[in-house]
Amino acid sequence: MAPVSPTDFPQPCHGVVVGLGGNIGPVLENLQGAIAELALVPGIEVERCSSWYRSQAFGPPQPDYINGCVTLRVSLSPPELLQTLLTIEQKFGRIRLEKWGPRTLDLDLIFYGDRQLDQATLTIPHPQMQFRPFVLVPLAEIAPDWVDPRSGKTVTQLVEQVDCTTVWPVAPGPELEGRMESGQVLTPGAVAVHR
Fold this sequence. Notes:
- The protein is of the alpha+beta class and 195 residues long.
- Helices cover 22% and strands 24% of the residues.
């Protein structure tokens, strides 16, 4: 009889939401590449991907963002998943220079099942997600009934409480080729305009 290993027993899987965004470099390539990287990680299964949405940046002057969300099934712990997300960000050139500054890739752990966690390096649910239409709008597309364990409200209810006029669907056109440049402003239904 073969020896028993911990990997012989299936690990419990948890539903997870990750928010994705970026606003410099080959943004769409980075976002799609990050999802592909997630799918390669043992213990992660990508379930659903939202459409991409354009949103106005806040913080220092910078290009608009492209954002989306994915739902995952994971057997990794929250700290292991956070480390995986940070590693993928670095792989795509993420450098943390200033709070809310421009970035090639941003991966945020929004929900981890119904778990609530408040640690120095990780808060679940994401502490700002209920105020961020660029998270809630794409998430409502793929998981409208997901319940925020902190407020007890569904994503649909949360999205009704934010101003969604700063978020709009985007289809990558030939004018962008998936790239966002410094100083570029994008408005709903319009092509790239440079300041």
